[in-house]
Amino acid sequence: MTQRDKANRTLVVVFGAAVRPDGTASPALARRVGYAAAVAQSDPSVDLFLSGGVGTYRPSEARVMANMVDGVVSAERLILDEASRDTLQTVAAAVAHGRERGYAKIQPCTDAYHQPRVIMLFRLMGFSTRAVPIVARGPKRLQAKMWAREFAAIPYDAVAGLNAVWRGRRK
Fewest Cβ atoms closer than 10 Å to its Cβ: which of 12, 20, 108, 164? Predict the structure, then answer.
């Protein structure tokens, strides 16, 4: 596919989550992949940027995602980012890929509690975006814990994101 063809395409960025000891997806990872696959199935102009390196267990989060969508989304519509190990790295890699390939739109796919931080980082890097809507799942106590964790992570990633943008402009 040429760069010109990408100009009318959307890059859906699927953020990684834990891989279980047996190499399967955690509930969060499975949920994110399910939503992204549904978007890609309903719109052939969508490519999936599957992001996440090797965590505690193998294989990489990106590889687990690719295996989950095998036969659902064609391989030429998948971009595997196995190098990124956190949210900021994923956003930076997706922005670089999106700019390099000339995508019209980048759309993050992650849980609702993670979306404010992700959207903030995309905006810091010059992309206004809307996340794929994902319905919150799981026990209320777990949801509250995840929102609290994200609330604490936003200031850290705001500073780290600004620093990354500043370093990028100095090059």
Answer: 20
